[in-house]
Design a protein that fits this description.
Blueprint: E1 2-8, H1 13-25, E2 31-34, H2 40-46, H3 50-54, E3 57-59, E4 71-75, H4 85-88, E5 91-92, H5 94-101, E6 107-112, H6 121-125, E7 129-131, H7 144-155, H8 170-186, H9 191-208, H10 212-235
Parallel strand pairs: 1-2, 1-6, 2-3, 4-6, 4-7, 5-7
Length: 236
């Protein structure tokens, strides 16, 4: 199993180096970067983890990560917005994430956002799970390298399955969600509920660790249903 760290929009170069150092502390090596400011200061603070920065994969768009992993986990220090609560639920603790991973084997990336804003709502919507670290509610936001340390410490203690499985990539989940959207539009599903339903489907399917064969079966059912409905519409 590969657990990667995905840094998004970090502007303080030292933070990126500190994250690399924390990764090496707990035995993690795979780093993805999107819109991050890496400088000489990053390599200085990385200390003996410079190779993690040198080998980091640079992404041009946030959603490119979906091509590399089976599941994307988002992190947030804020879990209670009014109309956006459905986006953030369910919210897991680092320990609950570790328990979920027990006995499983797949590629996972954990996204950590900007020093000031964290991950944007549209980025959190693309995540299959949301994790938050229980902190003082009066000051919930942690330094990004500290948050990485807490979560990686917890995950370094999990037991994983050595059996290799054909779990689909996260980008394949997106294609299935798009197919469900076609179905919703075909059956006149309420337009105002489509976007939040897509988020719910993405979370459910992402956590299910669906295989390629299972994905094909569901695609087939949806496509057949759409074809049948359109056929009936043509006869009326």
């Amino acid at each position: 199993m590969t657990i990667s760290v995905y840094l998004v929009g970090l502007k303080i170069p030292e933070n990126i180096g500190f994250v690399a150092r924390v990764m090496k502390n707990f035995g993690f090596t795979k780093l993805f970067l999107y819109d991050c400011r890496v400088t000489v200061k990053s390599f200085k603070t990385a200390s003996h983890a410079k190779e993690i920065l040198r080998n980091a994969v640079i992404l041009k768009e946030f959603d490119e990560i979906l091509e590399h992993v089976n599941m994307l986990v988002g992190t947030t220090g804020v879990t209670a917005y009014r109309q956006e609560r459905y986006i953030r639920k369910p919210v897991f603790s680092p320990e609950e994430l570790k328990n979920f991973l027990e006995g499983k084997s797949f590629d996972l990336a954990i996204a950590f956002g900007r020093e000031d804003y964290g991950l944007f709502n549209e980025e959190l919507e693309l995540c299959h799970m949301i994790v938050t670290i229980p902190t003082n509610p009066y000051y919930p936001v942690m330094n990004v390298s500290h948050a990485v340390a807490v979560i990686l410490y917890e995950l370094s203690r999990y037991k994983y399955d050595l059996e290799e499985k054909t779990i689909v990539k996260a980008k394949d989940i997106e294609k299935l969600v798009e197919n469900f959207e076609r179905l919703m539009k075909t059956v006149w599903y309420p337009k105002h509920r489509i976007e939040r339903t897509k988020i719910a489907l993405r979370r459910i399917l992402g956590r299910s660790l669906i295989t390629k064969r299972e994905l094909t079966v569901i695609h087939g059912i949806i496509t057949k249903t759409i074809t049948y409905i359109e056929h009936l519409k043509g006869k009326t």
